[in-house]
Amino acid sequence: MKYDAAKHHRRSIRLKGYDYSQAGAYFVTICIKDGLHTLGEIRNSQIYLSEPGLMVQTIWNELPLHYPGVEVDAFVVMPDHFHGIIVLMPDNVSGDRPQKPMTLPDVVHRFKSLTTTKYRHGVAKLGWTPFPKKFWQRNYHKHIIRDEESCEKIREYILNNPIAWEDDPLHLEKYHPQPDM
Questions:
Q1: Which of 28, 81, 86, 121 is the most exposed, fewest CB within 10 Å of its CB?
Q2: φ, ψ (nearest 5 deg) of residue 130
Q3: What Rg value do the Cα atoms of the chain yield, rounded?
Q4: CA–CA separation, 109 vs 30, rounded Å?
Q5: Domains in the chain and their CATH numbers?
Q6: What is the pTM of this model?
Q7: How far is residue 32 from each of residues 43, 109, 132, 136, 142, measured CA to CA in Å?
């Protein structure tokens, strides 16, 4: 099919006019393309991570080591998606771009790139399940966390996500938070 700008335009999921390099906390959900269950499985309301799931968890935990001014908070790796809170600190500056602060899209892009590269290695060397073309979906869901009360509710949601998975096997709507408005 030939590209038609009138039909095939991308709609931005970003909050119009918001500066995503601002210090603050952001809740993100990143989904595996085509819903492949490669990161683990839920049994008895607990996530049991596969080797790829452990790799995703490790890369998430190591983000602050590689990107000064980026912190991570509560997270959960699920069979086909990932929830986490990214905190951009006021002194948030990337080592390879000293003049420009990291933005939320920068952090998510690097997380997705690192995990995809490691996953490809696992496919080639360790026999992990191959994926078609892309590992992660093109976009991700995000929510600006505006206060501590909201942050606590999101942390609780993240921690309870494996329980919700078993209660609702068609969990699609539950892990797509509403876009920022």
A1: 121
A2: -65, 160
A3: 17
A4: 11
A5: 24-166 (3.30.70.1290)
A6: 0.81
A7: 20, 14, 11, 4, 15
CB 31 within 8 A of CB 79: no
Q: How far apart are CA 109 and CA 111, in angstroms?
A: 5
Whole-angstrom distance, CA of residue 28 vs CA of residue 10: 20
Kindly state the DSSP code that residue 32 receives in the 8-state scheme.
B
Question: Where do we find the tokens 């892309």?
Answer: 134
Cα–Cα distances (Å) from 24 to 93, 141, 143, 144, in that order, read: 14, 16, 11, 8
Tens digit of each residue's pLDDT (9 = 90 or more) over 83-112: 999 999 987 655 555 557 789 999 999 999
* Sign of the CA dihedral running 136, 161, 90, 71: negative
> Can you read off the two tokens belonging to residue 50?
């596969």
Q: Which residues pair with 46 in a beta bridge?
A: 43
